[in-house]
Amino acid sequence: MKALFELPVVALSTLQGGADTLVLAPTARLATELRRSHGEHMRERGLLSWRALDAASPAQWLDHLCSAALLAGDLPAEAVPGSFLTRPQEQCLWSRAVASDLAASQAAAALFDHEGLARCAFEADTLVRTWRIAVPELWQNDESQAFSRWRAAAERLRREGNWVSASEAMQWRMDCLARGVGKLPATVALAGFVAPDPMLQRLLTVLAQRGVVLVQVDIGSPRATAPRSVECLDADQECQAAAAWAAEHLARSPHARLRIACADWAKHQYALESALDAALHADAVGAAWTGHERRWERVGGVVLGEQFLADVAVRLLQTALNPRQVMFADVGALLCGAGWSSDVDEADLRAQCEASLRERVAPRTSLERIRRLASADLRIAGGARLDGAGAAVCGGASPVAHGRSQLLSHLELLSKGFSAERAQQTPGQWARVFERLLVDLGWPGQRALNRIERETCARLRECLAGMGALDRIAGRVSGSEAHRLLRQSLKELSIRVPRQRPAAVEIGSLDEILSGAVDGLWLMGLNEAQWPGAPRPNPLLPAFLQRQAGVPMASSEQLTAAAERSTALFSAQAESVVFSWSRREGERELRPSALLAGYVLVAMPARGDPPLAAAALQTLHDAKAPEMDAQERQRMRGGTALLAAQAICPAWTFYQFRLGAAVLPAPTSGLDARARGSLLHSALEYLWQGKAQADVAGLGPGARAQAITQAVDMALAEPSWLRGEPPPPRLVALERNRLIDVIDEWLQIEAKRPPFVVEVCEARHALELAGLPMRVVVDRVDRLADDRLVIIDYKSGRSASADSWADERIGEPQLPMYAALLFPASDLAAVALARVVRGGSAFLGVAGDEGILPGVKPLAAQRRRYDEQQFPDWESLRRAWADRLEQLAEEIVAGVAAVVVAQESALVHCPVTPLLRLAERRNQFESGEADDGGDV
């Protein structure tokens, strides 16, 4: 008998439909495509009716043949070797085999990915059976020995359950075929096979022995022309070029069928989809277009587990399985997201609740704590009356009230989890529990579902219903294991949404894209490393044995030969065929595949203007915001932070303080910087309030340590520094020791000062600047022996600096405001920041005379910073501060909001940086310099 690739070739259009002809293809998808292409050929010949072509994959056909023989009585039921396992059942069986072996060592069980090992062992077993690989004892390594143990365990489980693997079932069906079971077609045609397969070769041998005529099918287009090769700069340019090619084709011929495939599909699929949307659906912008039918679709469908509603269901079940230990980021995403509970009525309230919870819970917390805090927030926000359990009791029937009660009851349901089902159950029983919980939680939400979401929900319910098929294999399992089985099923299932009209452009990987004749085909990413791909032998079997057996994925020669056959098939598949490749990936230079050497290299198609390029654009100068009226000025809050932001970048002030833009706080474990700063301020207030220097800094070591400890303990006893969960006692003890050490170090600096008395600590003041109300807290004011004042502001961070006090725009305006506007008539000796940090405590500022504060020079000694022309004396400096702060306030009132910043590093703590569009600003400057002939 001739080998597969030596069989005679016939055209697809010459084949007759009906039972006498069978077409075998490597995949069911290609078989369906060939059936469609054959029908088109019949229509082109003018036929009104014809027999449909019988096309299937070898596994499908053998299954159908033996099933028909069983039904007809040609094959006795006793001949069936056992229960045939489906792929999910086999994977579950191998998971049990691997888990039972690793259970002997807890350390090994924690290190390895059980699911990945089971999948790899399953594939290795298929290779051993298909390619008849035997590993001699001499070549046994740790991996092959582990595989031998797992295989023995799997065999034992199959024997106990009388189960038959897919490989064994295939062998049995071919044995039945060899014994003469079933009625065979006169001709079997093979299409799309590019790599040798011993199972297929045995099937062909049996068919030839039974007198079946074997041929190959030419699935190419009769209008095929020589392919072109296109070189692109990178993968993004490839995606855009392919999308533009598709748009041009469809503009010329709206009913054309096109296909685009990518060698590295997993990496570039989303970039290609985005490019196709931009080229074919330029107006499809916004969430409302999400469910609309596109002119393109994925050949292989979309992964069920990646769909939004399936992901929501999985996350809800995961949360319910372990409600005592949840990540707030996961629960927060559920609170802010749709797909469950009253997600329409309560959307705004849930988002506000999530933002409020961020500062009060740790990154890892319990769902019960989140529920209690959310109950309090929702009660305050909406005035809902709560019962003793924390559930809302709403008298009205308004949507908001109903949503609030729904959210609280659903949070309570989640926090209880599966307490009633803690015992182990079969996967089918867990599936019913999971489905019941999802229904109780209001999944999939209130929104009207689009086509994709409806299909997702239907397939997810089918997946839950199908988990009962794993009962005999998995036995009784925990809820977490059942959840893992569900997630695994969702990852391996693909869905294709029913369409109202066929897609004009089909996209996918190179393995998926082979089909009957189409009008145009673009294959992208054909670089040297991708086409053909690198060998990937199974790691559980010696690689050289796999190469000796002829396993295609283990041998570069076999992969090259398969790629050559695939390239030949692709070249003849359409009238217009384009092979493209990238010159670089990041900084790495790339080369084209050697298989493209014989094709003509053409210039990359010119990029047309984007669809909206010709539209008239309106230019808006956004450096000026509306002027503030009297009411808005009185509502403005921010204090000195308002002036600091205006000094650094006026747009910062506008976005944060006038529009209310802010970054959401991130939950933190323990104490954050604000809590530490608050504790430091409180402890120093208790330590210094109403006391003189000698009363504190002049104490002996023992008495000073006692005073510091007492002040720190009083600060820790205050509840004001706690915003969220109380930190663990051990962490509080560490912070207590740190504060004692830092303050003791600070008092050693205070002891070097001339005598003084603390006048006030943490004094609150109010003033008005250009009509803006300012409420400030002065950390400390000291009175010296000569009755002059020293104003001090504590800083608990190392970045504190007084460098901007001499600038036109004062970026650290607190102390200049106090000196110039809060105490304008007072005789000031110095103003200084007190940087209280371990190993770096110091005074930073400016004084009227020498020796007022350690390390603080007088004005006359800081002329490199304070120019003598501008600041000849101490009073002129205070007047300049008053004028400059007044000017900043007037800018805010006038609406000055330009993106003007001297150094971008000054924006390191800016919460609205994304709104400033700094990258766009840089591009505009660079474009302007290029237009002016300057350096770019």
State the helix count: 33
The average pLDDT value, as a whole number, equals: 88
Largest sheet descriptor: 7 strands, parallel
The percentage of residues in β strands lies in 5-15%
Rg measurement, Å = 37 Å
Strand order of the largest sheet: 10-17-9-18-19-8-22
Number of domains: 6
Instruction: Determine and state the CATH class of the largest domain.
Output: Alpha Beta
Dominant shape? elongated
Detailed description of the structure:
By secondary structure, the protein is α/β, with parallel strands linked by helices. The protein folds into six domains: 4-80 and 169-218, 3-Layer(aba) Sandwich (Rossmann fold); 86-164; 231-301 and 505-602, P-loop containing nucleotide triphosphate hydrolases (Rossmann fold, 3-Layer(aba) Sandwich); 304-320 and 421-495, no CATH class; 324-416, no CATH class; 632-662 and 670-913, Lambda Exonuclease, Chain A (Alpha-Beta Complex), CATH 3.90.320. It has 33 helices and 27 strands. The strands form eight sheets. The protein has a seven-stranded parallel beta sheet with strand order 10-17-9-18-19-8-22. A five-stranded parallel beta sheet has the order 1-7-6-2-3. A five-stranded mixed beta sheet has the order 23-24-25-26-27, sandwiched between helices. α24 packs across α31. Mean pLDDT is 88; it is low at 383-403 and 929-936.
